[in-house]
């Protein structure tokens, strides 16, 4: 197994951070950024014109692909890292021919669920492309793109059904400012990355409602317990440690950091913004909004885990329930 040439699918802040990290250890990468004008500005300035503009790139080491060239992008890449927002991942993958996907290593860095299908990205790859599990991986962890751009010490976990792939990716993504660990918990990591965004929205809502640090600490304590119950019901794994950074650490940084778009989105909702108004003003995707709907549907139809925090977020976002009254009711369930 060989990582070969890495291809980055996506051009947002997290995609830009992973491109920067990848270029620390590989001479060249492929990068699918969709828009021609973005590529032109990228080449002219040496940085992504729309995201993480402080991160400098040697564009001679990047082969760009744009709209209409997704199959050549896949064919010319050996390892593809998927880094588009979850609402769009199906749109892109539906354009990929099975022949273009054959033999590829595919790493999921999408912190969301495939919409409509209510499938994890790994599940969608297996179902849609018959991709062997051993060729699928996931990368996650408490790693804000903005701090990667500043080369601040950060931590990632690479997971795969193949121990070899997990370690290859960990070696590839490790550098002076990135520490990588490995895991075989693909399902748990993927679900945790979805749930932490939902809980970060809850933290933001409470912030917007002027709940203090004392309440936030209890909210997150209950959130990690809720996450643990859900992932253990979906995929019981005796050696999973929910306090590891890829679970608890990612939840904490997403719930507390000012860089967190999910927390920001929730704060706006708590202050009285409508969902649409908050989305328009942010101009960025808050993954937890879509994740709340997917997890709610999965939990209602299949798993039936007691998830009061997730339910509260869903009711506020999708059923237009009062944020103040819903959080007040939720608070009575905490200890």
From TrEMBL:
It holds the Pfam family NAD_Gly3P_dh_N. The keyword NAD applies. It catalyses: sn-glycerol 3-phosphate + NADP(+) = dihydroxyacetone phosphate + NADPH + H(+). It is an enzyme of class 1 (oxidoreductase). Belongs to the NAD-dependent glycerol-3-phosphate dehydrogenase family. Its EC number is 1.1.1.94. Substrate binds at residues 111, 261-262. GO terms for biological process: carbohydrate metabolic process; glycerol-3-phosphate catabolic process; phospholipid biosynthetic process. The keyword Heme does not apply. Keywords: Lipid biosynthesis, Lipid metabolism, NAD, Oxidoreductase, Phospholipid biosynthesis, Phospholipid metabolism. Residues 185-327 form the Glycerol-3-phosphate dehydrogenase NAD-dependent C-terminal domain. It comes from Porphyromonas uenonis 60-3. The active site is at residue 196. NAD(+) binds at residues 145, 261. This is Glycerol-3-phosphate dehydrogenase. GO terms for molecular function: glycerol-3-phosphate dehydrogenase (NADP+) activity; NAD binding. InterPro entries: 6-PGluconate_DH-like_C_sf, 6PGD_dom2, G3P_DH_NAD-dep, G3P_DH_NAD-dep_C, G3P_DH_NAD-dep_N, NAD(P)-bd_dom_sf. It comes from the Bacteria. Residues 6-164 form the Glycerol-3-phosphate dehydrogenase NAD-dependent N-terminal domain. One of its GO terms (cellular component) is cytosol.
């Amino acid at each position: 197994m060989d990582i070969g040439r890495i291809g980055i699918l996506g051009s947002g802040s997290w995609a830009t951070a992973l491109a920067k990290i990848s270029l620390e250890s590989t001479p060249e990468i492929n990068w699918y950024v969709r828009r021609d004008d973005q590529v032109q500005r990228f080449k002219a300035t040496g940085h992504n014109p729309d995201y993480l503009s402080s991160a400098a790139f040697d564009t001679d080491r990047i082969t760009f692909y744009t709209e209409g060239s997704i199959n050549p992008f896949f064919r010319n890449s050996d390892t593809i890292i998927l880094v588009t927002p979850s609402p769009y991942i199906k749109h892109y993958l539906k354009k990929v021919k099975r022949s273009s996907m054959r033999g590829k290593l595919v790493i999921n860095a999408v912190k969301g669920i495939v919409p409509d299908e209510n499938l994890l990205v790994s599940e969608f790859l297996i179902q849609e492309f018959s991709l062997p599990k051993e060729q699928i991986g996931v990368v996650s962890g408490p790693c804000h793109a903005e701090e990667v751009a500043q080369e601040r010490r950060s931590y990632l976990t690479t997971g795969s059904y193949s121990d070899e792939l997990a370690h290859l990716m960990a070696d590839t993504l490790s550098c002076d400012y990135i520490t990588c660990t490995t895991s075989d918990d693909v399902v748990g990591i993927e679900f945790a990355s979805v749930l932490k965004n939902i809980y970060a929205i809850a933290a933001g809502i409470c912030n917007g409602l002027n709940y203090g640090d004392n309440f936030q600490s209890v909210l997150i304590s209950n959130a990690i317990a809720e996450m643990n119950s859900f992932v253990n019901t979906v995929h019981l794994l005796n050696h999973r440690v929910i306090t590891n950074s890829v679970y608890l650490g990612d939840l904490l940084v997403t719930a507390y950091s000012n860089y967190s778009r999910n927390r920001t989105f929730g704060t706006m909702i708590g202050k009285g913004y409508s969902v649409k108004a908050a989305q328009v003003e942010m101009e960025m995707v808050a993954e937890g909004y879509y994740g709340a709907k997917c997890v709610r549907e999965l939990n209602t139809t299949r798993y039936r885990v007691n998830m009061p925090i997730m339910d509260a977020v869903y009711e506020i976002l999708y059923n237009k329930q009062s944020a103040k009254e819903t959080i007040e009711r939720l608070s009575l369930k905490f200890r």
